[in-house]
C-alpha cells in the first residue's frame, strides 16, 4: 500500500489496465481517478461527448466508448502507450463497464462477439448490458444471422438487456427485422433452430421435468399440449425427439418462398380463416400455397405466464451443434405469415370480442380501410408459435425511422398480444398509416392479460391515418392501462378519399376509465375541438401532464372551453404545455392559466404571446405570477421577449412577491448580453431586499444573442451563476435573423 501522495503522482503514469487495478486502492486513499479518465478521454477519443455536463463517471464513459470503438475497428490501441499492456485484453477488460451497445451495418460487431474466442466477453456483457441498439442495418447472410441469434439469446434470454432500439433502416430486411423483434419478445423455436449448443439451456434441461400429455379429439386433430403448470414446473408435453418432429411439421414453409412482403389481404385471400372454428364449427381451410392448417382451441387451460426474469429451457439438440442452414429462414418467415391460429388466451375468446374496432370498422367486422390488416377470426394479434419456447423478454422496444409493411405490422401485433413484460413501446416514423389498426389489435389483446406491464406508448409519423383525437380515443379504448401516451404527426393524410365512410368509428363507444397520467398530442395543424378532447379528459381523472402541440384554435371561444373542461375533468393536472399554438389573441385565457392554484408548471412555447400585446399585458402576467404560490416552473421560449421584457420579468421576485417560482425558461427570445446583465443586476437587488431568501434555482437561456458581446455576456453569466443554475449554449446568432423572418 503506497502513501496517498505517492499514489497520486503514480496514477497518471499507469496504463488503463493498471489504472483499473489501482481503482480500489485510490478509493481507499480518498483519491479520485475521474480527472485521469477525463484526460484519457480527451487524449484518446479526441471528441467532446454529448451532454458532457451530465456525465457522473468518466471511467465508465471512457471504457464503454473504448469497447465500442475497438469492437467496430475505429480505434487503434497502438495509438497511445496507455492502451498498450501485454496483460490487457481490450474487449474482455472493458466489457464489464458496458451498459449500452450499438450494432451497425453488416453486424460485424455481432459476429465478433459471437466468436468462440470472445466467449468470456459475451458472458460479461450478459451481466452488464442493459440497452442494445441497432442502427443503419443492411441485409445479412445466414452465417451473420446465426451469430446474431447466439448474441440475442445470450444477452436477452439469459442476460440483462431490457431495451432494444432500432434506428434508421430505410429498406429493412424482413427476415432480419422479424428475427430481432421475435427474440426481443422472448420467443424462439426449440432444438435445432439455434445454431449452437446453449450451455445454460442444456443445464436447465437436466432438471427434473414433468410431462403433461393431453389429447383432445376435436375434428380429428390433436389439440395444443401445455408444457408447464406453475412457476416451478418447467416440463414440456413432448419428448425432445417428438417435439423436433412436431416442430418441423408446424413451422415450415416451402424452401422456394421468396423474401417479399405480402399484405394481409393477400394472405387472407389465399388462406381464409373460418370464424366458426372458434365456436366449434367446421375447421378452417388454407390455400395450397400457405402454411398447413392448425387446429384452433376454444380456450387454453391456463393463461400464459409472465416472462420477465424467468428462463425457459431449450429442448435437447439431437443433430450436433449446427442446425440446418434453412432452419432460421423457416422460423422467421413463418412468424411473419402466421395468422392467429393456435393458442387463444382464455380471457380473449369471450363472445363479442372476436374482432377489434379501429376507425372504419364496426364490431364484428375486419379492420378495413386499407389494403392490409384484415383480421380473421379470434382476437387479432394472438401469437401461436406452437413449438417455440418463451424466454425472458425486454421491457422497452423502440423503432425509429423503420418502415413497417402490413406483413411486419401483423407480426409485431402477434408479438405484442402476449408481450406481458413490455413496459415502453415507441413507434416513430414507421409509415404505419392504416396499419396502426394491426398494432391496436395486438395492444387490445395484450391489455386483457392480467400480467401486462405496458404503461408507455409513443406513436409518431409523417402522415396521420385519422384525426389525432380519434386515434387517441382508439388507443385509450384499446388500452386504458396506459400511464403515458404520446401521439405526434407532421402532416394530414392527403388521401382523404381512401378513408372509409359510413361505418362507425372506434371513437363512438365510451372510453373506459383510464390510468392515464401524461398525454402528449402533436396535431398536424388540425383544429383543436374541445368536444373531441372532452371524452378523453373525462376518462382520465388521474391526468397530471397535458401537452398540446401545433394545434389551431377554430374559434376565439375554444381555449376558454378547454380551460373549463380541464378544471372540471382533471383535478390533478400539474403540468400544462402549449407549443406552436397561436395565443396572441387569447390574453384573458393566458392570465387565467397563470393564476390556476393547482398547476405547478406552465409552458407557452412559440405561442406568439407578445405579438400584438401591450405593456399592460406584460404587467398583468408579472402580477399574476407574483400572487401565485403554487406555480414552480414557467417556460416562455420563442415568444420574442427581447431585453426590455426580460428585465421586467425580474420583478416576479420582488420583495412583495409571494411567488414560489423555481425555474424560468427564456430560450430563443432575442435576448442580448446587455439585457441579460441588466436583468441580473435587477434580480440581485430583489434578492438583497429579501435577505437572500429566494426559491429561484434554474434559468434556461438557449439560443439567445449572447455572442454579440462576449465580455458582457460572460459577466452576466458569472453573476447569475452565483444566484441560480444557468443552462445556456454557444449559439451562432448570425442565423437568428433568418429564423425571425421565418416565423413572422
UniProtKB/TrEMBL annotation:
Residues 211-232 have a biased composition (Basic and acidic residues). Gene3D superfamilies: Ribonuclease Inhibitor. Residues 211-319, 343-369 are annotated as: Disordered. Residues 249-260 have a biased composition (Polar residues). Residues 1-22 form the signal peptide. Residues 277-294, 347-361 have a biased composition (Low complexity). GO terms for cellular component: cytoplasm; nucleus. The keyword Ion transport does not apply. Residues 296-319 have a biased composition (Basic residues). Coiled coil: none annotated. The keyword Signal applies. PANTHER family: LEUCINE-RICH REPEAT-CONTAINING PROTEIN 41, MUF1. This is Leucine-rich repeat-containing protein 41.
Amino acid at each position: 500500500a503506497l502513501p496517498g501522495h505517492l499514489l497520486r503522482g503514480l496514477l497518471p503514469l499507469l496504463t488503463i489496465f493498471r489504472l483499473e487495478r489501482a481503482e480500489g486502492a485510490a478509493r481507499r486513499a480518498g483519491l479520485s481517478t475521474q480527472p485521469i479518465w477525463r484526460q484519457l478521454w480527451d487524449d484518446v477519443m479526441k471528441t467532446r461527448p454529448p451532454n458532457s455536463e451530465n456525465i457522473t463517471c468518466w471511467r465508465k464513459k471512457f471504457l464503454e466508448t473504448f469497447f465500442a470503438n475497438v469492437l467496430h475497428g475505429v480505434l487503434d490501441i497502438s495509438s497511445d502507450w496507455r492502451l498498450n499492456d501485454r496483460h490487457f485484453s481490450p474487449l474482455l477488460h472493458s466489457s464489464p463497464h458496458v451498459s449500452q451497445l450499438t450494432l451497425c451495418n453488416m453486424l460485424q460487431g455481432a459476429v465478433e462477439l459471437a466468436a468462440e474466442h470472445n466467449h468470456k466477453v459475451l458472458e460479461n456483457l450478459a451481466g452488464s448490458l442493459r440497452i442494445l441498439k441497432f442502427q443503419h442495418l443492411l441485409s445479412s447472410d445466414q452465417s451473420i444471422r446465426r451469430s446474431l441469434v447466439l448474441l440475442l439469446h445470450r444477452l436477452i434470454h439469459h442476460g440483462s438487456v431490457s431495451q432494444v432500439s432500432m434506428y434508421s433502416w430505410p429498406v429493412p430486411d424482413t427476415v432480419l427485422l422479424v428475427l430481432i423483434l421475435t427474440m426481443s419478445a422472448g420467443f424462439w423455436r426449440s432444438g435445432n433452430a439455434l445454431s449452437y449448443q446453449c450451455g445454460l439451456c442444456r443445464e436447465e434441461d437436466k432438471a427434473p421435468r414433468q410431462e403433461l400429455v393431453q389429447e383432445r379429439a376435436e375434428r380429428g386433430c390433436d389439440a395444443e399440449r401445455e408444457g408447464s403448470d406453475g412457476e416451478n414446473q418447467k416440463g414440456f408435453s413432448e419428448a425432445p425427439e417428438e417435439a423436433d418432429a412436431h416442430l418441423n411439421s408446424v413451422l415450415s414453409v416451402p424452401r422456394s418462398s421468396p423474401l417479399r412482403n405480402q399484405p394481409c389481404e393477400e394472405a387472407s385471400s389465399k388462406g381464409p380463416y373460418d370464424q366458426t372454428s372458434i365456436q366449434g364449427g367446421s375447421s378452417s381451410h388454407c390455400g395450397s400455397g400457405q402454411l398447413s392448417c392448425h387446429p384452433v382451441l376454444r380456450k387454453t387451460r391456463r393463461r400464459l405466464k409472465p416472462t420477465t426474469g424467468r428462463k425457459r429451457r431449450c429442448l435437447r439438440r439431437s443433430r450436433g451443434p449446427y442446425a440446418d442452414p434453412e432452419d432460421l429462414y423457416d422460423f422467421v418467415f413463418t412468424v411473419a405469415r402466421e395468422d392467429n391460429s393456435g393458442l387463444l388466451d382464455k380471457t380473449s375468446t369471450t363472445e363479442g370480442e372476436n374482432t377489434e374496432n379501429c376507425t372504419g370498422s364496426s364490431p364484428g367486422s375486419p379492420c378495413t380501410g386499407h389494403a392490409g390488416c384484415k383480421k380473421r377470426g379470434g382476437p387479432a394479434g394472438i401469437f401461436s408459435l406452437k413449438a417455440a419456447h418463451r424466454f425472458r423478454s425486454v421491457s422497452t422496444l423502440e423503432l425509429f425511422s423503420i418502415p413497417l409493411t402490413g406483413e411486419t405490422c401483423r407480426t409485431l401485433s402477434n408479438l405484442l398480444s402476449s408481450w406481458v413484460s413490455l413496459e415502453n413501446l415507441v413507434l416513430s416514423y414507421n409509415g404505419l398509416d392504416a396499419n396502426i389498426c394491426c398494432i391496436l389489435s395486438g395492444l387490445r389483446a395484450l391489455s386483457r392479460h392480467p400480467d401486462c406491464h405496458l404503461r408507455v406508448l409513443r406513436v409518431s409519423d409523417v402522415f396521420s391515418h385519422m384525426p389525432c383525437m380519434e386515434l387517441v380515443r382508439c388507443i385509450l379504448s384499446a388500452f386504458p392501462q396506459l400511464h403515458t401516451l404520446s401521439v405526434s404527426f407532421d402532416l394530414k393524410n392527403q388521401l382523404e378519399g381512401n378513408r372509409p365512410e359510413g361505418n362507425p368509428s372506434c371513437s363512438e363507444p365510451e372510453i373506459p376509465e383510464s390510468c392515464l397520467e401524461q398525454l402528449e398530442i402533436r396535431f398536424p395543424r388540425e383544429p383543436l375541438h374541445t368536444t373531441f378532447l372532452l371524452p378523453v379528459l373525462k376518462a382520465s381523472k388521474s391526468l397530471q401532464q397535458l401537452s398540446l402541440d401545433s394545434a389551431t384554435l377554430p374559434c376565439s371561444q375554444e381555449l376558454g372551453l378547454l380551460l373549463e373542461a380541464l378544471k372540471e375533468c382533471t383535478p390533478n393536472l400539474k403540468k400544462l404545455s402549449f407549443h406552436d399554438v397561436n395565443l396572441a389573441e387569447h390574453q384573458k385565457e393566458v392570465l387565467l392559466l397563470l393564476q390556476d392554484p393547482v398547476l405547478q408548471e406552465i409552458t407557452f412555447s412559440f405561442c406568439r404571446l407578445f405579438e400584438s400585446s401591450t405593456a399592460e399585458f406584460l404587467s398583468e402576467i408579472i402580477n399574476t405570477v407574483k400572487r401565485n404560490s403554487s406555480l414552480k416552473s414557467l417556460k416562455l421560449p420563442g415568444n420574442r421577449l427581447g431585453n426590455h421584457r426580460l428585465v421586467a420579468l425580474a420583478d416576479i421576485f420582488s420583495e412583495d412577491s409571494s411567488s414560489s417560482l423555481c425555474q424560468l425558461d427564456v430560450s430563443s427570445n432575442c435576448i442580448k448580453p446587455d439585457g441579460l446583465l441588466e436583468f441580473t443586476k435587477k434580480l440581485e437587488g430583489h434578492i438583497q431586499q429579501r435577505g437572500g431568501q429566494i426559491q429561484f434555482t434554474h434559468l434556461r437561456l438557449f439560443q439567445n444573442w449572447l455572442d454579440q458581446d462576449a465580455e458582457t455576456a460572460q459577466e452576466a453569466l458569472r453573476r447569475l451563476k452565483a444566484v441560480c443554475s444557468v443552462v445556456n449554449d454557444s449559439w451562432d446568432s448570425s442565423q437568428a435573423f433568418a429564423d425571425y423572418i421565418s416565423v413572422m
